What we know:
By secondary structure, this protein is an alpha/beta fold. It has nine helices and six strands. It is 44% helix and 12% strand. The protein has a six-stranded parallel β-sheet with strand order 3-2-1-4-5-6, sandwiched between helices. Helix 1 packs across helix 2 (45-59). The longest helix has 19 residues, at 23-41.
Amino acid sequence: MMVAWDRTDTVLLDMDGTLLDLHFDNHFWQEHVPKRYAERYGLSAAAAQHELAARYQKVEGTLDWYCVDYWSRELGLDITQLKQEVDHLIGLHAHVQDFLEALRASGKRLWLATNAHRKALALKLARTGLDVHFDTIVCAHDLGAPKEDQAFWERLQRAHPFEPRATVLIDDSLAVLRAARSYGIAQLIAITKPDSTRPEKVVEDFPAVTDLRELMPR
């Protein structure tokens, strides 16, 4: 088994791409926002996508990249409202409910650790009801650093003490998994198909699964 459940006390789960299908976020940032941006500023679809791609790249991996308020200011668009326009695309990956229920039944501490902004988090929890499964929900914006940054893990430890050697993190971001490894989290699992509409990713640095049922505690 990829996870030594008998030596695991705490399970840290990412949200977007791990529990939720990343199709919503990919569609939103790569198609819906460019469409509304083009309408707002009288640009062609191609020009809007080109301009936004460059602006995204400048802040990728920082807290601003995940910040609804930052993008509302930068783009002159109501990002929260735009998310609501396509929130029907928010959905769980297959077998997520079964996996979370099995973890709860096994007595593990179950934490959601997300880079999502509080406004985006509230929308997704309202749509999915995921929050009922978790003992703790950790938002990177509350800690002032994204999960890619060592400061996130240090501040998480102060806010919610945990034993890294008895913790598993499941995440679709390799940058986040590398940061967690540097911090000392013992068990790290990557998700190879965060977006159900796109091909699987090749992951070489970490144990990886396509479907969370592959990790079901027994």
